[in-house]
Amino acid sequence: MSTTRGRIDKRQAILEGAFTVFARLGYAQAGVQDIAAEAGVAKPTVYNHMTDKATLFRHALEAAARTVLSERLAALDPLAAPGDDLTATLECVAYELLRLHTDQRSCSLKRLLYSEITTFPDALDLVLDSGPHRLNQALADRLARLALSGRLRTTDPDLAAEQFMALLTGPLEARTRMGTQQITDSELRTMARTAVETFVRAWGHPEP
């Protein structure tokens, strides 16, 4: 059991180290020795877990996308029991999603994807399958439950989820210049509030 646990821990360290190095240096300039040093393992250990650098790159991207997804899914938890003030709950969720979209890991993942997409055209599917698609599905499920309870008036929760995310990420991409420029916490809160205001006008019932 301890041997298996140790192997899993080393694999995780390698993937995290690889993502850090790839994000810092880019795929072409990153070396396996750099990754081994970042992960705190010997270079042969990297090859024991991954056959080559290209395989390591794909697995590192996928692992980073899964981590990002798990954090964003957790941000949706308040929608399970939103309380009396649905608008306020939506604003809290929107703010947390915006904050997570602008954290270091998310920005690094986006930059890596943009910079290496021509070399790894399959990378987009790896990231989307482990990220935005599943987040939109989870959000649609939450919105469907709110509609069933009479809190929203949508008959198309998938479209509602898509539009909710578009109201957040569209302005975010523009204001952060595609993740290359930081914005303040105050700006994030304002963006969350205005996005929810628009969303509630389109899909919400008046609160009692």
Verbal overview:
The model has no long low-confidence stretch (mean pLDDT 90). It is built from ten helices and no strands. By secondary structure, the protein is mainly α. It folds into two domains: 1-50, Arc Repressor Mutant, subunit A (Orthogonal Bundle); 55-203, Tetracycline Repressor, domain 2 (Orthogonal Bundle), CATH 1.10.357. It is elongated and about 60 Å long.
Helix vs. strand class: mainly alpha
Report the β-strand fraction as a percent range.
Answer: under 5%
Specify the CATH class of the largest domain: Mainly Alpha
Q: Give a short account of the largest sheet.
A: none
Uncertain segments: none
What is the CATH architecture descriptor of the largest domain? Orthogonal Bundle
Q: What integer value in Å does the Rg equal?
A: 20 Å
State the gist of this model.
With 208 residues, the chain is mainly alpha-helical. The chain has helices at 2-25, 32-39, 43-49, 53-75, 86-101, 104-116, 123-129, 132-148, 157-175, 185-203.
